[in-house]
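FORM 12-B: Structure-to-Sequence Request
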């Protein structure tokens, strides 16, 4: 029987799950994924506040795997709108195994490894920048609102690897106008789509949490069960006592 204690336990479990929701899987690639593309979608936030006007996406296409190197084409789209303006000055992610170096061409030709990313993100494994600056923050260069920028990049590793995992995707917005009190921000991965094959894709391990499937149904069931049990107890308590 679904008793009051059971309802409370389920309610507590669901509440805990909502307090610390699951995060979707990273992007995992190997030589069989050459030619496949995946698109990462980003939000924009500063000082713990997400700004709906800021948004972007980056499409990565795996173009080659050779020894200890993975090569990609990339295309960055700045989706900032609703009266705001910004430039995307850099993008970054983490790698498993650890990266030993990177090169890049096109809109983001400068790279740095093991560098700190702004807005409390911390150290990232590799960062691709539109300008040759001293940090991942960049400067006024980069892809503007409503624009796209493309190029190619190569990730180098000390040894050949059977597969590569990419996680913790971020972008950096600079020169922001149209949002009160905000001139710079960062963006984290909010979701991804994959085309052309079987690339394993999902959310960032540090990105926006993705609720577990069926969680809302469990939450509703817990509330209904708890309500019915309380009603039953009140009904029993209101019945007259027998001598």
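FORM 12-B RESPONSE
SEQUENCE OUT:
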């Amino acid at each position: 029987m679904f008793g009051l204690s059971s309802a409370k336990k389920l309610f507590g479990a669901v509440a805990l799950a909502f307090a610390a929701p699951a995060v979707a899987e990273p992007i995992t690639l190997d030589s069989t994924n050459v030619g496949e593309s995946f698109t990462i979608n980003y939000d924009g936030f500063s000082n713990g506040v997400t700004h709906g006007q800021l948004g972007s996406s980056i499409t990565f296409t795996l173009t080659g795997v050779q020894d200890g190197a993975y090569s990609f084409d990339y295309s960055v789209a700045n989706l900032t709108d609703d009266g705001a303006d910004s430039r995307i000055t850099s993008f970054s992610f983490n790698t498993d195994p650890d990266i030993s170096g990177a090169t890049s061409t096109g809109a983001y030709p400068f790279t740095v490894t093991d560098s700190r990313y702004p807005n409390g993100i911390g150290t990232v494994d590799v960062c691709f920048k539109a300008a040759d600056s001293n940090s991942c923050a960049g400067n006024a260069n980069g892809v503007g609102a409503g624009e796209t920028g493309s190029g190619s990049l190569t990730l180098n590793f000390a040894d050949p690897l059977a597969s590569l995992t990419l996680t913790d995707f971020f972008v950096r917005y600079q020169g922001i106008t149209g949002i009160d009190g905000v001139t710079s921000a960062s963006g984290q991965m909010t979701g991804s789509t994959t085309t052309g094959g079987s690339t394993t894709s999902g959310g960032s391990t540090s990105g926006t949490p993705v609720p577990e499937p069926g969680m809302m149904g469990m939450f509703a069931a817990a509330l209904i069960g708890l309500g019915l049990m309380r009603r039953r107890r009140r009904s029993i308590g209101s019945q007259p006592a027998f001598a």
